[in-house]
Amino acid sequence: xxxxANFLTEEMRQQAIGVExxxxxxxxxxxxxxxxxxAIGDPNPQYTDEAEARRGRNxxxxxxxxxxxxxxxxxxxxxxELSFSRRLDGGSxxxxxxxxxxxxxxxxxxxxxxxxxxxxxxxxxxxMTTITTYSxxxxxxxxxxxxxxIAY
Length: 152
Hints:
- The protein has 152 residues and is α+β, with helices and mostly antiparallel strands.
- It has a domain at 10-28 and 74-151: Thiol Ester Dehydrase, Chain A (Roll).
- Helix content is 18%, strand content 36%.
- It has four helices and five strands.
- Strands 1-3-4-5-2 form a five-stranded antiparallel β-sheet, with no helix packed on it.
- Strand 4 (123-135) and strand 5 form a beta hairpin.
- The longest helix is centred in the first third of the chain and has 10 residues, at 30-39.
- The radius of gyration is 19 Å and the shape is elongated.
């Protein structure tokens, strides 16, 4: 399947920027934190030993920073179809503000921040930057993820 020579118009770009996903909320379970820490091979007692974690700087068990990568994602609906057959994760940058703890209810919302088009060896490519904000039940932002999706 070939990609169009020019796909993204300025009108489409303006329609997409600012589009937000519906919020997705999930509860952080202690067992999920323990299994995640085990899966990534991180023996840090802040993630794996509740008694030791209570004596630590966080005052209890917390999730490893990369934990949020393991939870259910959000679904962004653009006002148009990206008519490309391939998708590539162009990478993420994360900022962390507060620890994620067992029992937290985390709500994730993604927003389209930028959309551009470039030509490459494989044809036209659309780069979409999204920012996902993760907030806890106290409405504190615990982390943000800036992600680049490449459609080609």
